[in-house]
């Protein structure tokens, strides 16, 4: 059995896929069941040719993780993997089921939730997680979670000490 490796790394495609699925589940982009069974990467008409796309998406995910607090643009992400922004969106969606922007927002929301758990105020959590300001965080957080960051913090972490 020939193990395919990601070029210029010591990581196998299988290991990479496992890590990507775990990150997607943690970001609540796919369910834990999908991450365990690998359903998020399955499509009926997928061919072996698409296995070449995985390192590109992986590099973008790693870049986002490393630069989460920076103001990232689609153009910057596309330049990082030498694709047009439209090619990047298409490939990223094929691999993860969401756009790069949706993935980035989910990662930032998860970071904010960690800060809120640690007792950090929402205005500071917003800046630390890469949002423009507290207003941007509040709007995005409400859309994703159904409540404001302050309400979330008070509901889940107020009485912990």
UniProtKB/TrEMBL annotation:
Gene3D superfamilies in the record: Homeodomain-like
Alphabetized GO MF terms: DNA-binding transcription factor activity; sequence-specific DNA binding
Xref: SUPFAM superfamilies: Homeodomain-like
Protein name: Helix-turn-helix domain-containing protein
PROSITE patterns tied to this protein: HTH_ARAC_FAMILY_2 (PS01124)
HTH araC/xylS-type domain boundaries: 58-155
Keywords assigned: DNA-binding, Transcription, Transcription regulation
Organism: Fodinibius roseus
Superkingdom, taxonomy of origin: Bacteria
């Amino acid at each position: 059995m020939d193990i395919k490796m990601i070029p210029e790394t010591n990581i196998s495609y299988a290991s990479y896929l496992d890590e990507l699925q775990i990150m997607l589940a943690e970001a609540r982009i796919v369910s834990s069941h999908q991450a365990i069974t690998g359903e998020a990467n399955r499509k009926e008409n997928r061919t072996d040719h698409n296995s070449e796309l995985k390192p590109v998406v992986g590099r973008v995910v790693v870049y986002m993780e490393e630069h989460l607090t920076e103001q990232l643009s689609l153009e910057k992400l596309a330049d990082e993997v030498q694709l047009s922004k439209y090619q990047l969106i298409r490939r990223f969606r094929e691999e993860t089921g969401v756009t790069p922007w949706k993935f980035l927002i989910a990662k930032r929301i998860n970071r904010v939730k960690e800060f809120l758990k640690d007792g950090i105020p929402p205005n500071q959590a917003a800046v630390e997680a890469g949002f423009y300001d507290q207003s941007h965080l509040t709007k995005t957080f409400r859309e994703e979670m159904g409540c404001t960051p302050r309400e979330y913090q008070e509901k889940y972490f107020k009485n912990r000490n």
